[in-house]
Design goal:
The complex is a heterotrimer of chains A (785), B (310) and C (163). Chain A has 785 residues and is of the alpha+beta class. The mean pLDDT of chain A is 95. Helices cover 25% and strands 25% of the residues of chain A. By secondary structure, chain B is an alpha+beta fold. Chain B folds into three domains: 52 residues, Uridine Diphospho-n-acetylenolpyruvylglucosamine Reductase, domain 2 (2-Layer Sandwich); 116 residues, Uridine Diphospho-n-acetylenolpyruvylglucosamine Reductase, domain 3, CATH 3.30.465.10; 105 residues, CO dehydrogenase flavoprotein, C-terminal domain (Enolase-like, domain 1, 2-Layer Sandwich), CATH 3.30.390. Chain B has twelve helices and 14 strands. The longest helix of chain B is centred in the last third of the chain and has 19 residues. Chain C has two domains: 76 residues, Roll (Ubiquitin-like (UB roll)), CATH 3.10.20; 71 residues, DNA polymerase, domain 1 (Orthogonal Bundle), CATH 1.10.150. Chain C has five helices and five strands; from the N terminus they run E-E-H-E-E-E-H-H-H-H. Chain C has a five-stranded mixed β-sheet, with helices on both faces. The chains are: A alpha+beta (785), B alpha+beta (310), C alpha+beta (163). Chains A and C meet through helix 1 and helix 16 of A and helix 2, helix 3, helix 4 and helix 5 of C.
């Protein structure tokens, strides 16, 4: 990868200026004159039937324009394919505290709130089930979706053949991987290690809560400022929900204030559209309060993982069995794919001869769930990377050596049968081992604090079988416009797109204009998820650029008296390879020069939809040669201090080294890593959604749900992001992705460090001081030399 | 907070409030005027100083006063005064931030500086008042334990006159004080600390910044060569009100401070706590924290250990 | 019942009829149209709505509009002057301290309030000043770097002025 001018450089982000000045417009900033304000009325019960809704008093309030309820609204589905969620439940059954039952729009937000308080709803309460183990039973205390079978029948899901467990009425999906014979492996093993790990429900806590504005233009076109992680998917959902033609729906959301998976499923768009429709097309804004966002904007799945390993004396893991109960909440269509995809956190790293994996999606009467950064890999890695240290201790082996012994290498086949390529885990491990001075024991001081070091690995895959697109236009002055299928949720796709296009055309980055998030001009593509953007959009752009260049070269060739194949382009000049003085300015290829059209071609446009097709896995064994486009890898090392009396944990030093393939923008990759590691600190030490006896969320505020503040991370000198790229052969300039893998290893690394410090291992996240103190007291040993 | 608590059979509405409720806003120019307004409106009105607590309560519809009496612009109420014999006087509008930044307080009343440093965030401390923190009467109010170990007196004013209440008697329950409906807290008085006194405030929260205390301990001790001449201990967040741990004080007063005695005092303090279990911590853990923090605070106050730095 | 209120924002005067139960955040973003200040939680727990009022960083969601009259209010939109970015804005851009950008205005204003008062903060001082500003994207590393960078630039230019 020699002599690149823009790619591989840490250029400033192309959207940084607009964000630094406060000019960037986010969906929650968007306002139009005479906009109506929507409010959603919700169920206070976790499981109940709506008996009656009285809206009379609300209707009479001056300024109220529209009221629509579960009783007078037809079923409006909120997903395509497998659909368990509608705008209001068509069967009038509410399934979690916060389930939407009515919506209204009024001239001001004050009036909307007053009207909402006047709506009186009677419910008939049902028994609810909050514990995933109870919900999983063959005879659970409550059946949450009695018509689950019909949802599956209506599903058009192709390739991911979902398997139900017919004996368990709350199980929405059962995913399996089978390789070899685990029981035979256990019989051959010298050591069996078995354990259970737990991760709670988390909330994404994007700093921008969800908000959408929808309105109909006079010609009937629906426009939406959507709080959407994918403008095109959001549009599909709306078209499907309201039976609208895609030609008449435009979503325009260039910037989103953070998503992390949470805004991939609609929480405000459909309500804004419904209310606008009923208000004869007037613009309606529906914005969630932060408390509402905690309750209703979808959470991360809670997981209970059973792990059993059979290990040889030399450290070879000969047999691994995993069973994971995925708590998908009252609605889980956003989590359905997750029940399958979480498996690959267990697939990507280790070479294991006998492997058995079962994951079950289980409904409970708690908050609905959806994708959350890592998509199941963090949850399963929590179990595996703790277990690895447990095994190492029992064998008297260095935990890094144990990992090294079992790592997959390039060319191996993973437990699903896919060949391993660009495997960077060992390089990351070596770099991190060196950084943390692994062989040096931490310095212990007088007093109650004890220090310890811990390391963990992580992996994440990018799923195959989804498309991204790009359209590249050469402007008459030689600058380039890139329209891509995604939108800027903060991860930096606009900058990556600009860098790749700039490199391809040999121009400086300020000659590139990137457009995203507007479905009227941006081509269709799948969501910015699965760490897939750089690879898929990057490749789409490269191919689109090459098509556009082809047109330019065809136009320039006769003017230069050469064949098109002998041409190249740089600094807005088409030139003959090897004879750079023989050139023509791009501007001269247009008529009028620098301003008008491209003779014979109208416009110079290249386009591409890029996909790596998946090979659907065998539904009985999970085997497929192509599930992932690639895997990303990383290692994280942490030094902690634990107060042996209060259990308080401080992170003293932290370094994460990640292989995301070639970094297009190293500084942006560092930023992703730093942010991912910090998010994972929250999961490790502070974050959990807490429920009361009636399924009500107890900590629905930043006050009570604690994400890391700037004072909860180590000082800059001690918080380090490292890159150890292993080029991906089919990635743009060798790039893969990095956004998720960096949020995966911290919790087990911290857990391993705490064990190293004080000899206790907390298996249920978050690791609170209280849990540590309890464990220490149980251990009867309050200090460790 | 959603509207209404679900009761079987009763029709209710649940949704999430964003706007403040409607109220009438009154802006008295003097404290006398404020007292007079309260005298007329009584429980229909709420005094608003910084507003960082009351506005959140109102947004959640925990309270919906018909009148807000804003005293923010009565600049004569914003003072921190000190006199050799009079001690400290904090006006009703002295902000937590101004106390934090006051070199006078850092030098002469350091335990209060420690307490306010631990509160909330920079933005909140810039606006929140010490008076507001006390009147909110949340069991975890950080300024309370420090004042409890300092013999503070609160000056309450109404249009009927003035009365003084020792801080030990001010709190009556979670979010409840002896303030009558026509009274406002006008001033906080703290006697000058005798030399030889050292104060330590320690607290434990779920996260370093922006966290309510799960448990907090304030110790004010007058000791010399490990002999305890006098000591006051107060506990926060572990009882319905911030309170003194007088039983623990008795263990140490007039004694030599050895580790065993300190441990015994800490144990007694943990038994004097009346903690609840909530989303932040269990009652058992809170008791444990009281024991640990009390021992640590005493040791720091008598110089056996320096502050904790990791 | 709306009341006529007078606001001074970024050096400009605004006379508006506003309900008494409006917060400063609502007036800035909904009435005046300065949407750079953001709502994150509306309860003072996230700092996204931070503005500078009489030189102090405050959460505008917890300031009543009626109490914000005739005081100096600075928002993110007022930072750049005559086409020149404030050193903090430039540093945030150069150091890569911006990702989704939603917390950025609040962060920059909190940092500005710090540097205006203390031109030579340590890293610890900077973290303390921003302890009430939540970010979910960056891990804060480059935000701290940006403040340290801006600190040097502002010290440098102020010493230039002395010459």
């Amino acid at each position: 990868m020699a002599n690149l001018s823009v790619v591989g450089k840490s250029v400033p982000r192309v959207d940084a200026l607009t964000k630094a000045t406060g000019a960037a417009n986010f969906p929650s900033d968007f306002r139009v004159p005479r906009m109506l304000h929507g409010k959603i009325v919700r169920s206070p019960y976790a499981h109940a039937r709506i008996v009656s809704i009285d809206t009379l008093a609300a209707e009479r309030l001056p300024g109220v324009e529209v009221i629509t309820t579960a009783l007078n609204t037809p079923p409006i589905p909120l997903a395509i394919g497998f659909c368990d969620k509608h705008i209001f439940p068509p069967d009038l059954i509410v399934r979690y505290v916060g389930d939407a039952v009515a919506a209204l729009a009024a001239e001001t937000e004050d009036i909307a709130e007053e009207a909402a308080s006047l709506i009186k709803i009677e419910y008939e309460e049902f028994p609810a089930v909050f514990d995933v183990n109870q919900a999983f039973e063959k005879n659970p205390p409550a059946i949450i979706h009695p018509h689950l079978a019909e949802y599956h029948l209506r599903s058009e899901q192709v390739g991911n053949k979902m398997m139900r467990d017919l004996e368990r009425p709350n199980v929405s999906r059962h995913f399996k991987i089978r390789k070899g014979d685990v029981d035979k492996g256990f019989a051959e093993a010298d050591l069996i290690v078995e354990d259970r790990y737990y991760t709670p429900k988390l909330q994404h806590c994007q700093i921008e809560p969800s908000a959408s504005v929808a309105w109909f233009e006079p010609d009937g076109t629906l426009k939406i400022k959507a709080s959407a992680q994918s403008p095109h998917l959001a549009k599909l959902v709306i078209c499907h929900a309201f039976n609208l033609s895609p030609a008449k729906v435009i979503i325009d959301s260039p910037y989103i204030g953070g998503s992390f998976g949470g805004k991939g499923r609609p929480t405000t768009d459909p309500y804004a559209v419904l209310l606008s429709m009923k208000a004869h097309g007037k613009p309606v804004r529906v914005g969630l309060t932060r408390e509402e966002h905690f309750h209703c904007a979808n959470s991360r799945i809670a997981t209970t993982t059973y792990i059993k390993d059979g290990v040889k004396k030399d450290g070879t893991i000969v047999s691994r069995q995993l069973r994971i109960l995925v708590d998908t909440g009252g609605y889980g269509d956003g989590a359905m794919i997750l029940v399958r995809n979480c498996a690959f956190g267990a697939v990507g790293l280790y070479n294991i001869a006998n492997f058995k994996f079962d994951s079950y999606g289980v409904y409970t009467n708690t908050a609905p769930t959806t994708a959350f950064r890592g998509y199941g890999s963090p949850e399963i890695t929590w179990a595996i990377e703790n277990q690895m240290d447990v095994i190492a201790e029992k064998l008297g082996m260095d935990p890094l050596e144990l990992r090294r012994r079992n790592l997959l290498r390039d060319g191996d086949r993973d437990v699903c049968g896919q060949r391993v390529v660009s495997m960077g885990a060992e390089k990351c491990l070596d770099k991190i081992r060196h950084w943390i001075e692994w062989d040096k024991k931490p310095h212990q001081e007088e007093g109650p604090w004890r220090r310890g070091k811990g390391i963990a690995l992580g992996t994440k895959f990018t799923t195959a079988g989804y498309q991204s697109s790009a359209v590249v236009k050469v402007q008459p002055d030689g600058s380039i416009e890139v329209r891509h299928s995604s939108n800027e949720i903060g991860e930096g796709i606009n900058t990556v797109a600009a860098q790749i296009a700039a490199e391809s055309f040999g121009v400086s980055i300020d000659r590139i204009r990137v457009l995203g998030g507007d479905t009227s001009i941006c081509p269709y593509g799948h969501v910015s998820a699965s760490s897939r953007e750089t690879f898929h959009i990057g490749n789409a752009i490269l191919i689109a650029c090459s098509e556009a260049k082809k047109d330019l070269f065809e136009m320039a060739a006769p003017k230069l008296g050469v064949l098109a194949q002998s041409l190249d382009i740089k600094d807005r000049k088409v030139f003959v390879k090897g004879q750079p003085e023989k050139s023509i300015e791009v501007t001269k290829l247009f008529s009028p020069s620098g301003l008008g059209y491209a003779p014979g071609k109208c416009e110079i446009i290249g386009k591409c939809t890029f996909e790596i097709p998946a090979i659907p896995e065998d539904p009985g064994t999970g085997q497929s040669e192509r599930i992932a486009v690639y895997y990303m890898y990383g290692a994280e090392a942490v030094e902690v201090a634990v107060d042996t009396e209060t259990g308080e944990v401080r992170i003293l030093k932290n370094a994460g080294c990640f292989d995301g393939g070639t970094p297009i923008n190293p500084k942006m990759c560092e930023g992703q890593i730093e942010g991912g590691m910090t998010m994972a600190f929250g999961a490790a030490l502070y974050e959990q959604q807490l429920y009361g006896q009636k399924g009500e969320l107890l900590n629905a505020s930043f006050h009570d749900y604690k994400i890391p503040t700037i004072e909860d991370v180590p000082d800059n000198a001690s918080m380090v992001a490292l890159l150890e790229p292993v080029p991906q052969p089919d990635g743009p300039f060798g790039a893969k992705g990095i956004g998720e893998v960096c949020s995966i290893p911290a919790p087990p690394a911290i857990s391993n460090a705490i064990y190293n410090a004080v000899g206790v291992r907390i298996k249920e996240l978050p690791i609170t001081g209280e849990k540590i103190v309890k464990a220490l007291n149980k251990k009867g040993n309050n200090s460790k030399a | 907070m959603p509207v209404g608590v679900a009761t079987a059979g009763m029709p209710i509405s649940m949704f999430f409030w964003k706007r403040l409720p409607k109220f009438q806003y009154l802006a008295p120019k003097t404290i006398e005027e404020a007292a007079s307004i309260l005298g007329d409106l009584k429980d229909q009105a709420k005094i608003m100083a910084g507003g960082t607590d009351i506005l959140v309560q109102m947004k959640n519809r925990e309270i919906t006063p018909a009148y807000l009496v804003g005293i923010k612009n009565i600049s004569s109420l914003d003072y921190i005064e000190y006199g050799q014999n009079e001690g400290f006087r904090f006006g009703a509008l002295s902000t937590v931030g101004s106390i934090e930044n006051s070199s006078l307080i850092q030098k002469k009343y350091n335990i209060l500086a420690q307490a306010v440093r631990s509160m909330a965030s920079t933005q909140i401390r810039n606006v929140a008042t010490i008076a507001g923190n006390l009147c909110s009467a949340v069991p975890s109010a950080d300024t309370a334990p420090a004042l409890l170990v300092s013999g503070a007196k609160l000056k309450l004013r109404s249009n009927r006159g003035i009365r003084f209440v020792p801080i030990e008697e001010f709190f009556t329950g979670p979010r409840q004080t002896v303030l009558r409906e026509d009274e406002l807290l006008a001033e906080i008085q703290v006697p000058d600390l005798a030399s030889g006194n050292k104060g330590v405030y320690l607290r434990h929260g779920l996260r370093k910044a922006m966290a309510l205390a799960s448990a907090s301990v304030a110790v004010m001790m007058n000791s010399e060569d490990q002999y305890c001449k006098d000591i006051k201990i107060a506990l926060g967040a572990v009882a319905p009100v911030p309170r003194r741990a007088t039983g623990a004080e008795v263990v140490l007063r007039g004694q030599y401070l050895d580790d065993e005695l300190i441990a015994e005092a800490a144990r007694v303090a943990s038994e004097e706590a009346q903690p609840i279990s909530d989303i932040r911590a269990s009652a058992d853990y809170r008791r444990e924290l009281v024991r640990i923090l009390t021992a640590r605070a005493i040791k720091q106050a008598c110089g056996k250990t320096k502050g904790m730095v990791v | 019942m709306k009341q006529l209120m007078h606001f001074k924002v970024n050096g400009k005067n605004y006379d508006l009829a506003v309900e008494p139960n409006r917060t400063l955040l609502e007036v800035l973003t909904e009435e005046i149209g300065l949407t750079g200040t953001k709502m994150g939680c509306n309860e003072g727990d996230c700092g996204a709505c931070t503005v500078i009022v009489d030189s102090r960083a405050v959460c505008s969601c917890l300031i009543l509009a009626i109490e914000a009259q005739n005081i100096t209010i600075e928002t993110i939109e007022g930072l750049a002057s005559a086409g020149q970015l404030h050193p903090l804005q430039q540093a945030f851009i150069d150091c890569g301290a911006i990702q989704c950008g939603y917390c950025t205005p609040g962060m920059i204003m909190a940092a500005k309030a710090l540097l205006d008062k203390n031109p030579d903060p340590t890293e610890t001082d900077s973290r303390r000043a921003l302890q009430g500003n939540l970010c979910r994207c960056t891990g804060y590393v480059k935000i701290v770097e940006a403040i340290m960078t801006a600190r040097e630039v502002m010290k440098g230019s102020s010493s230039k002025k002395k010459l």
